[in-house]
Design a protein that fits this description.
This is ABC transporter permease. About 70% of the residues lie in helices and about 0% in strands. It is built from twelve helices and no strands. It is globular and about 95 Å long. It has one domain. Helix 7 runs antiparallel to helix 12. It is mainly α and about 300 residues long.
Length: about 300
């Protein structure tokens, strides 16, 4: 029996070794593109891009009204934008979290990622950073549009005799505080949505689970707040905000970032509770990331 050696054209790779950081950046870019359906079919793009358009509509409409009315009170409070539009943000969370948290688990591709120079920490943080970036853009772009609209119309409001036109410095301070609030919203909402989606590998169940947690926590907190306010116990109504993500972050906005309580003054976080709400928000992010890493570490074993 004779043997033969065939030249199949194999060559050693002599190029640069890009390493772990390059892999992490590539994962971040891939996940961010996936969240908006970029590089995929029209069906994958429809929901995220439609939700992004819906997020912009109130800001564009408000600027149009401002251009006719030329009165500063018609401008939506920057810090309230995410609160007013939380149903749209919740739909984005529910539909897009499974896109980057569930598919790798469902199709069991996690071990393939870990066969390369990428750690569990890199893998999870790349997904988390991509989701935070997408959510931050979803909320911060309309707020920025509102601020630019105010700057463009301020001179016309003053010339039109509008009373109490805010100063540029004051309004810009509120804008940057609102951006800090948007970042905290993105961190908290991304962490809890990805965690839920990672434990429900089938996309349909993941969508339902994220939406259920959002709705149930909101309903329970609203019931507690309503009962507390009706009995005159505003302290309990304020502390109840710790147990749902939107009011949790809003407590930080009001008590630490100087946002005006406005229409939610009755159930806003109690005076002096800002550090507690901030620590609770950071705890949600930290614990969620630890559990996510544990989930993907087991899946990659």
């Amino acid at each position: 029996m004779s043997t033969a050696i065939h030249d199949i054209g194999y060559r050693h790779y002599d190029g640069p070794r890009l390493g772990r950081s390059h892999v992490a950046r590539s994962l971040y870019q891939y996940n961010l593109r996936s969240l908006f359906g970029l590089g995929r079919g029209a069906r994958a793009k429809f929901i995220p891009l439609a939700l992004a358009a819906f997020m912009l509509l109130p800001a564009a409409g408000d600027i149009a009204v401002l251009s006719f009315a030329r009165r500063p009170e018609v401008l939506i409070d920057y810090s309230m934008y995410a609160i007013y539009l939380q149903p749209i943000i919740a739909i984005f969370l529910a539909t897009q979290a499974p896109v980057i948290a569930s598919r790798d688990l469902r199709f069991r591709t996690v071990p393939l990622y870990f066969s390369r120079p990428v750690e569990t920490t890199d893998f999870v943080l790349a997904k988390f950073a991509a989701f935070v970036t997408a959510l931050l853009a979803l909320m911060a772009v309309p707020v920025t549009l509102l601020h630019l609209g105010f700057l463009a119309m301020r001179k016309a409001m003053i010339e039109g005799g509008a009373p109490d036109v805010p100063s540029v410095a004051g309004q810009t301070g509120e804008y940057f505080a609102a951006l800090a609030g948007c970042l905290l919203f993105a961190l908290v909402l991304s962490s809890f949505a990805l965690l839920i989606a990672a434990y429900t590998p089938r996309r349909g169940f993941g969508v339902a689970a994220v939406m259920a947690v959002y709705l149930i926590s909101n309903v329970v907190v609203l019931i507690v707040q309503g009962a507390s306010i009706s009995s005159g116990n505003y302290e309990i109504a304020g502390w109840a905000g710790l147990f749902t993500p939107f009011t949790l972050v809003d407590g930080v906005q009001v008590r630490l970032l100087g946002a005006d309580p406005g229409v939610r003054a009755e159930n806003v976080a109690p005076a002096g509770s800002g550090p507690v709400f901030l620590l609770a928000a950071l705890a949600v992010v930290g614990v969620s990331l630890l559990l996510l890493m544990n989930r993907f570490r087991k899946a990659g074993a």
